Every structure is written in structure tokens, then in C-alpha cells.
Amino acid sequence: MYSKNCDNRPDPTDINLLVIHCISIPDKHFVPADQSFEQSLIHHLFMGNHTPELKKYFDGLKDQFPNGIPNVSAHIVIRREKDEVLQYVPFIKRAWHAGQSEFEGRTNCNDFSIGIELEGYSEDIPYTETQYQRLAEITRVIMQVYPKITKDRIVGHSDIARPAGRKPDPGPLFDWNHYAALLSKP
User: Fold this and answer.
1) 171 - beta bridge partners?
2) Residue 155: beta bridge partners?
3) Quick check: pTM over 0.85?
4) What is the DSSP-derived secondary structure letter of residue 159?
5) In whole angstroms, what is the distance from residue 81 CA to residue 133 CA?
6) Of 76, 97, 109, 138, whose CB neighbour count within 10 A is largest?
7) H helix or E strand, kind and range, residue 50
8) Residue 43 and residue 36: Cα distance in Å, rounded?
9) pLDDT for 128-185, tens place per residue?
10) Apex CA 118: angle with CA 4 and CA 23, to 5°?
11) Which CATH number fits domain 6-184: 1.20.58.1000, 3.40.50.300, 3.40.80.10, 1.10.287.370?
12) Secondary structure letter of residue 162 according to DSSP
């Protein structure tokens, strides 16, 4: 079942950017391997299920989210503690992952990008090797299906978010060189 937090792209033939994100709800926390991801706040957020628990979480962030729970999604989530990849939005649809954004003079990056979320981030907990492996595998497939997405058209959310500095993800512990090396492997 896909998220309802998506819509049609203005031009489904113009998919040419891949955006790497991270998601942690509660903040700086990840879902333990023994917990069903479908029970997580991340899952409920991306599915548009405004549960009492999710509402309580966003009520605590009124300074960042004055309008309450945002309607967001991503195309893919790569779990941290479990070798699991979940697809929330078909690539042909527009996921709501980039928010106010700009790349090479074009705004509204959701219109022409694919968004991949890495679960769990902290300034002192690096991403797992399995996450890098899955991200590289998925990226290679995406690049084959959508050849306009080249290595120079893969960015972090921090690179496109506007105003600049609004979003830090995937963060300083994301190893871009390691990811690039994995992409080069057959």
C-alpha cells in the first residue's frame, strides 16, 4: 500500500534528480530492529496517518512546525537496524520530500526528483554499511531506469533546501566518498 501523501508530477518524463535524506522520529532516534516499522511514527507520518502519538510528537515541535503535522512522504525508506527497504510512493508519482527547494535554478524539486530517506541519524551515530549497500543498489537501478539522473545529479537535502541551511540531512556523517565508490561497483 502506498502513501496518500503524493500526487501527479507535472512532467513524469522529467525525472532527473536524486535527493538523499535522513529521517529520525522521535528526533535523533531510530526504530529498533525488533519493532515493526509499521508501528513507527515515521511510517505513520509518511502514510498520512495522524495518530494521537504522532500529533503529540509534532505538538512538541510547534516552533518548527507551527501548522502541526506536515504532509510529507518519500519514495523509499532504507531502515537502519534491519535490512529492509520500503517504498512509499511509486517513482512515477511526486513524493513530498523536498519542501521549499531549488537545484540549478529550478524550484520545487519534488516535481523532478526521487527522494530516498535513510532511517536514523545522529551527530555521533554513523549510517550502517547495509544502508550504504542498499542505497547504492537502489541508486544504480534508478540511474538505469531514469538516465537523466547521473552522479552529478545526486544531492543531499541540505544541498537543495531553501532558504539555505534549512535542512542539514543527510548530515556530516554521511560518507559521500564511500557511497560514490559503491556506485562505481558493478
Assistant:
1) none
2) 19
3) yes
4) H
5) 13
6) 97
7) none
8) 10
9) 999 999 999 999 999 999 999 999 999 999 999 999 999 999 999 999 999 999 999 8
10) 65
11) 3.40.80.10
12) S
For residue 180, the one-letter residue type is: A
Residue 67 is which amino acid? N
Closest CA to 136 of 58, 90, 95, 78: 78
**Which residues are known catalytic residues?**
117
The position carrying cell 502519538 is: 53
Q: What is the pLDDT of residues 27-62, one digit of tens each?
A: 666 677 777 788 889 999 999 999 998 999 899 999
Q: Which residues of 107-139 are buried (b: 16+ CB within 10 A; e: fewer)?
A: eebbbbbbbbbbbbbeeeebbbeebbebbbebb
Which grid coordinates are listed for 175? 560518507
Tell me: cis bond preceding 26? Omega within 30 of 0 counts.
yes
